[in-house]
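Suppose you are handed only these lines of text.
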Amino acid sequence: MTKHKTGLSFEVFPPKKDEEFDNAYQIIQELGKLNPDFISCTYGAGGSRAGKTIEISSFIQNTLHIDSIAHITCVGFTREDLQRNCDALKDAGINHVLALRGDRPQTMSDEQFNNREFYYAADLVHYLKEHTDLQISGACYPEKHFEASSLEDDLRHLKEKVDAGVSSLISQMFFDNAYFYRFMDKAGALGINVPIHAGIMPITTAKQLGTTVSLSGSSVPKELADIIATYGEDKEDMRKAGIDYAVRQIRDLKEHCVDGIHIYSMNKIKTTTEICSMI
Ligand code: FAD
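From them, the structure of the protein bound to flavin-adenine dinucleotide can be written out as follows.
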């Protein structure tokens, strides 16, 4: 019997300032040495920096020769913008995207947000399938998306998105593996059979957990809350305890033969390298 191999991948983001790019390239190069199956690069929804996502994704794909996934969002894109972005991706040799709806940026009115041309990620997937030959991944939520009325409802929409042409999924971060296993069971029962990469966010500061939880809606198990209470005041102890928590989560996921581990690297090379050396 062949043993199932759990994949490894990272998420990076384009720096906010142009002068920070050299450093970001160095970090991504170091991440590349950890032998990931792919590296994905985020996109700021509604922003004007789509080109930066392409620049970083192109570096990953063409300089490091590692598969790159460029994130794209519905929010802030007209049909024309989207086609231009797809053409730019093609010119840059990038053939894989993470098709997302995106959230309303602070600078965008509710009216603008609600009048977007592609409403759900699935609409974007339909367009990409019809007009490009890009490979398409999508996002999923082990604890349900914050707007969905139930996990069952969210999963039904996820099935529509997968059926529209998504070939793999990357999950929102979660801190309690039980949610991921429950989600996998329910997704499987609905016939969602594409590979699902488990999103892991190492929490290395107390402040980061607050921001992360408010953005992702992921629940915090008592064990992680206790770690913050015990080590939150001490920078290095907190970093070590956060790494240890992430490593234990990953080891357990690997024992459960999940398809892939997707580490939200936050462009932190030291933390990511340490985690990878322990798994
Ligand atoms: P969708 O799949 O469209 O789902 C959004 C909501 O709509 C869900 O509640 C779903 O149940 C519901 N829904 C879907 N279809 C229907 C329907 N037909 N009728 C009624 N309801 C429906 N954001 C960024 O801006 N940039 C990034 O780079 C980025 N990267 C991300 C990477 C990952 C791995 C993840 C998990 C999220 C990322 N996000 C990013 C955040 C994402 O944009 C938000 O979570 C957004 O709110 C939802 O995006 P989605 O693609 O999952 O949306």
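What can we learn from it? The beta strands are 7-12, 38-41, 67-73, 96-100, 135-140, 168-173, 196-200, 260-264. The chain has a mean pLDDT of 94.
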